[in-house]
Amino acid sequence: MKRHLLLFALALTVSFLPQYLAAADQLRAFQRGSWQTILHAHAGRPMMVNFWGVTCAPCKVELPLLGKFVRDNPGLDVVTVNADLVPNAREAVLSMLRKTGLLSTENWTFSDGFVERLRFEIDPAWQGDIPRTMLIARDGKVTTLEGIVDLAKVKKWFEAQMNETK
Questions:
Q1: What is the pLDDT, as a whole number, of residue 1?
Q2: Nearest-CA neighbor of 151 among 54, 76, 39?
Q3: Which among 140, 124, 143 is positioned nearest to 132, based on CA atoms?
Q4: Domain ranges of the chain
Q5: CA distance from start to end of the chain
Q6: DSSP E strands, the chain
């Protein structure tokens, strides 16, 4: 009986291991130059970039809503960036993404201790407030939203962007 339980536990662990490893690979280190990498990878397509933090109370409200938005609207370019001032343990960031259903998105985390430099690269006027969402249109025009976003308006923005090509 113990042997069967051990084999069952081992099989269960092995079945979840690829998913866990894939999730770990989805958390990319945001360093100098990463912003340009993201913009280049999504050039010509509308994209939403959400900046959040593990200890940010409004982020804890917004992220589950964003996770539902992503599930309800597959195929949209959505990027999340953990922009905490104090670097978090990788597992804390992955845990938050897992709980909110955002592991399927493109995920980054600030990995340079000089976060002011990273923020300046993204937007020289950004003082570090989170949550912060940037909507980047097909033509590169940026709309910045501070605080918890109205995802119904974001959906309309995406729809308008998609209709521009029709």
A1: 61
A2: 76
A3: 143
A4: 27-163
A5: 63
A6: 27-30, 47-52, 77-82, 106-110, 132-136, 142-146
